[in-house]
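Forwarding the complex inputs:
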Amino acid sequence: MSSPLLSLENVSISFGKKLVVDNLSLEIKPGERLALVGESGSGKTVTALSILRLLSQARISGRINFQGHDLVTKSEQEIRRIRGSEIAMIFQEPMSALNPLFTIGNQIIETLILHEGLSHADARKKTLQLLIRTGIRDPERGIDSYPHQLSGGQRQRAMIAMALACRPKLLIADEPTTALDMTIRARIVKLLLDLQQEEIARNGNEGMAILMITHDLNLVRKFAQRVAVMEHGKLVETGETEAIFANPQHPYTVKLINSIPVRRVEPVVDNAPVLLESDKLRVEYYKPKQGWRGLFGKTSHVALQGADVVLRAGETVGVVGESGSGKSTLAQAILDLIPVKSGDIYFDGAPISRLSRRNHRALRASLQVVFQDPFGSLSPRQTIKQIVGEGLVLHFPDLDEDEQQTKIIDVLREVGLSASILNSYPHEFSGGQRQRIAIARALVLSPRVVILDEPTSALDVSIQNQVLELLVSLQKKYGLSYVLISHDLTVINALAHRLYVLKDGEIVESGDTEQVIAHPQHPYTQTLVSASL
Amino acid sequence: MPTLNPTIGEAIVGTPADKRFDPEEALNRAPVHFSPSSRIWHRFKHNRLGYWSLILFVSLYVFSLAGELVSNDKPLVVYYDKHWYFPLFNDYREAVFGGNLPITADYHDPFIQEQLKKPGNFALYPLNPYYYDTLNYFSNADHYPGAPDSENFLGTDIAGYDIAARLLYGFRVSVTFALALTLVGTVLGIVIGAIQGYFAGKVDMFTQRLIEIWGSMPELYLLIIFASIFEPNLILIFLLLSLFGWITLSDYVRAEFLRNRQLEYVKAAKALGLSNLQIIWRHILPNSLTPVITFLPFRMSAAIMALASLDFLGMGVTAPTPSLGQLLLQGKANLDAWWIAVSAFGVLVVTLLLLTFMGEALRNALDTRLTLSDKDQGSI
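Prediction (whole assembly, two chains):
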């Protein structure tokens, strides 16, 4: 058994009086792939950053041994020599981790000159090789591109190339795929695996180790050899990936593994009427033409075309697609928040665009929405009572103060919150609770259709599951219909009866959820399914 | 799997299963909830310097508003020949107090003062027996400006007006002027910025071009031109300054609105069916006021300075309107009469300093990045 490459011994990290990481001990062997798993606030990123001493305000106690040297006691100068050359790091959001004012090539060349002492010409040559290795499209051009000229996946590849420049012994990857689309995620994970295999093939057992920080259990299962689970700053369980998934010991690990959404869909009544229907919906965005022509005309960009969506009463349809595929546009078009270029939407058989003002307002009450970001979707200066009650005042003006209050309290209890929060403000709640409040705001108007625009994307996995359960139980109780918009097939699979796959503004495949996932027809659906399940 | 299992980080308040759940009781048990604005006030109060500056500034202003009781050339109450008189509210002829002339009594006249001092009579004078436009015809001074002495404890200016009185009323005029200017500028700025930011697109572009044209008008030259056409007075200066004062603020409000209109709570409000005005008023405006509030004290000090500089340059109000800028101008012209410049300068410095301290405290209180623990300002 070789000696560990990195070992953390009784490491505690605190900010001021707040203890963030509590007595953590962890080892990584050379050439190993370890996943550090936990929910937000569990201290996993702080642990990673403290290995490189990138947290200036944190107090670290304990020992962080890297190849036999304690990193905690090293001087700032010594640690700087290790950063980038011995231990490299890739971050979640490649756009903000790359300097927007320098070309990709420049930033990698800089690292090489600094740590390896290469000449500029040699460094450039090596950079080009690195970019080829990480699979950047058209590397000759990519090397002189600025970060904003590359797509998200390409940027993350450039980040990886930069991290690998000095052939580090340890690569720390902090949520490297979270900001990327599903299909690209799979490719980045494969790239990391391939690169590590290459390193091991070249250096034998002394190859590069990878510490992957993530909350995505699918990713862990595909990638890691060993898993370490963190909860509230404590390491609760470590072990081989297979063993942990097959036989988790700690209750928190059990909960995490159980939190992968499972399908809990009840069949729709056979003769359920069609509630919402869209007919060849087309939405265009306008933007000024390039250069001086922009003064005179605009070009249009088609965000959505030929969208025929049918929703029956008590049914959930899923809309899945990558960012920019037009799925949020579809939601907003149905909600009449953006103008529709052509096509029509029918609610209960009546075309929405031809409704009178009065009926239109009534429609607002029966067509509600829950948004993705629980922090942006509640006005920070209103109390919960005001937030939930606002629609009541508008749509049910006959209710007096007491009846309104009763209704608000009822609906809050329906989503699992107590009446004592009526006078609280949104900042007092966690993400999951805020999402419940957002659901309450929609529910209080007794809607018939609720549009769920990525309702769980901003939530931790275990909370995500709770919110999904809540949605299912509400659907059962009130016969609600959902339009569920998500980039995550597992969420769609958990909730949706039927699904539509959107790509570049067009529906490429639709049908029964189980059927589509089991036998995807369109090549895009196939990659999507293989990437996420 | 049970529905709704409470977990870590997701403490569910109350239990839906509890049938005997009493909302009234729950409300009574509920802890005090701080709204964002009350938290800001709390943070502001913890900044000692800013808080005391606010208290001092408000007290000074209230004091100056009651200036007639403190500094006036008429007694507050007179008891003469078994009658009560209130010269502050009524004008009495000299004949009333035993004089011969049918003119309004001048209470600095030694004859009147003698009359009022006679046994049985009684007069209560204010602390400083001068109004800002009082000319003391019975002064002992042999020239103006007169140095501080027992008659005028801060001396007199070149016309013989009492400086202490002029400072007091000058302060009152400056602050009132600044308050009004700030109010009008803020309201205009918010309204125009809100319309631009909320409707965006063509409305925004059109208004923005108009503002650019309007903003490129030379404000100072306009003031000079108008000062030479009309007799400059406070109303005219106020109108001219408020025509331009809102521009910077509307930019800030516009930017805030442009940002906030994209947020999901605004979309949610639209999906609820709220009208534009309701969304602006209830949702976006309260969340867009941070730059407005932060700038209030600084805008006030800018307004005070604007008035003082116009007066100093001779384009402002004319005597006898009390003005700090005019006193500075006189001080500059009469360097040997040090008491004029020093006292006017002192009042201006103190006023502006208090406003700046308040502004800084307010800025820190509104800055969410500074947490209470950062500044060690106690806890909520």
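Chain B touches chain A through 41 residues (CB under 8 Å).
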